[in-house]
Each structure stands twice: as C-alpha cells, then as structure tokens.
C-alpha cells in the first residue's frame, strides 16, 4: 500500500471545499435572485423605499456570492495567495467587486431599516463600500482586516434591527421584520465561516448547511408575504 502524502490529503480536502462552495454559492445566488424578482411586483404596487433597498440588498448578495465562488476557483487553481499575487488584473478586480458587493448588501439592508432617518443618503454607502474594498485590497494583513470589517457590518445590522424594534407601530406593519432577524443570523454564520479554516471540512459543512437552511427560510418568508 503506497504511503499517503499530506500534500495529497490537503489537495483532496481543498477540492471538496471548492465543490461545497460551488453548491453553496449557487443556492445563495438563486435564492437572492428569487427574492429580488419575487418582490418586484410588491415594490411597483407600493413604491415603498424600504422594499426598494431591501430588494437591492439581495441583488448585491447574488453579485457578491458569484464573485466569492470565482475567488475560490482562483485560490484552488493558482494557490492560496492567488488573489493578491496573480499579475493579471482579474484577481484584484474580482476581490474588489466581491468586497464592494458584500458590503453594499449589508449597507442596503441597514438602509432599508433606517432610510426615513437618512433621506437620499444611499450614495454614502457606495463611497464607504469602495473605500472598504480598496483598503482591504491594499492591506498587508487582509484576512484579519476583512474579519474586522465583517464584524462591524454585523454590528451595523444589529443596530438597524434595534432601531426598527423600538418603533412598535412600524414593526406591526413591517411584513419582513422576521426576515431581518434571519439575515442577522445568516451574517453571524458568515463571520463564523471566516474564522473556520478551510481544511476543517466537517465544521464548514455544518455552517454551510445551517446558512442554506436560513436562506431557504428567508426565501419562503419573503415570497409568502410578498404574495
């Protein structure tokens, strides 16, 4: 029986991880687009700005997870440092769009909860998202910086939910309040996923399955209430 090399084991685990990532990202993208298009008629009937920003949040979720899966491909085929060391413009551009889109997904979700307090300020979130993407792209310790920014975005969602919760009258009318709670839980798992090394497949698979379950429940809740 030939000896098992650690390099072969690592490559096999990485291949499994990439396969999980493809399936995971595909389901998130599909659910996000279904929410985006499933709430189109509701927005057209009500012209509610909160619904507008809520929909845009899921559109940016879909964009972010598309580029996230693309980054995984780059890491698998070119190595762990591919995103930063590949000379072509594709890798840094992909990372930039991913960070920008994922930041905008949270910003729009937050804005959908507080837009009445900050009228016509959505352009500020685009500026913040671009700055965040540039800082991470140029950072020498991008992994910890990215984790820190995700934690800040997580706290931002918590603040938005607290603001929404204080207005009890508005909560009774807000048909998507439970969805915000579920998205809060989803982003918490997103932070946990960053902390888990890729090679720990069992734990990562558990996080993926729970995240997918939450997103499927979000899809069900949104389409049910939008209909």
Topology, pairings included?
Elements: H1 6-38, H2 40-46, H3 49-78, H4 82-85, H5 90-114, H6 122-138, H7 142-166, H8 168-173, H9 177-195, H10 201-226
Which key terms come to mind for this protein?
227 residues; mainly alpha; Rhopdopsin 7-helix transmembrane proteins; 10 helices; globular; disordered N terminus
Explain what the structure shows:
The protein is mainly alpha-helical and 227 residues long. The protein has a single domain, classed as Rhopdopsin 7-helix transmembrane proteins (Up-down Bundle), CATH 1.20.1070. The model is unreliable at 1-14 (pLDDT under 50). The N and C termini lie far apart (60 Å). Helices cover 85% and strands 0% of the residues.
């Amino acid at each position: 029986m030939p000896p098992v090399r650690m390099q072969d084991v690592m490559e096999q685990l990485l291949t499994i991880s990439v396969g999980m990532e493809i399936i995971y990202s595909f389901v998130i993208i599909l659910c996000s687009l279904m929410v985006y298009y499933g709430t189109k008629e509701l927005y057209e009937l009500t012209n509610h700005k909160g619904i507008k920003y809520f929909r845009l949040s899921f559109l940016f979720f879909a964009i972010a997870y598309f580029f996230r899966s693309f980054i995984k491909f780059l890491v698998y085929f070119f190595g762990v440092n591919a995103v930063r060391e590949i000379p072509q413009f594709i890798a840094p551009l992909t990372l930039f769009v991913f960070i920008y889109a994922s930041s905008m997904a949270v910003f729009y979700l937050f804005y959908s909860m507080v837009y009445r307090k900050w009228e016509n300020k959505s352009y500020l979130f685009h500026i913040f998202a671009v700055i965040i993407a540039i800082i991470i792209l140029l950072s020498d310790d991008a992994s910890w910086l990215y984790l820190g920014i995700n934690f800040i975005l997580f706290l931002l969602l918590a603040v938005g939910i607290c603001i929404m919760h204080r207005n009890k009258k508005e909560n009774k009318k807000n048909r998507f309040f439970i969805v915000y709670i579920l998205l809060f839980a989803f982003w918490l798992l997103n932070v946990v996923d960053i902390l888990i090394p890729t090679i720990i497949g069992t734990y990562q698979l558990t996080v993926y399955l729970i995240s997918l379950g939450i997103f499927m429940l979000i899809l069900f809740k949104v389409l049910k209430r939008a209909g």
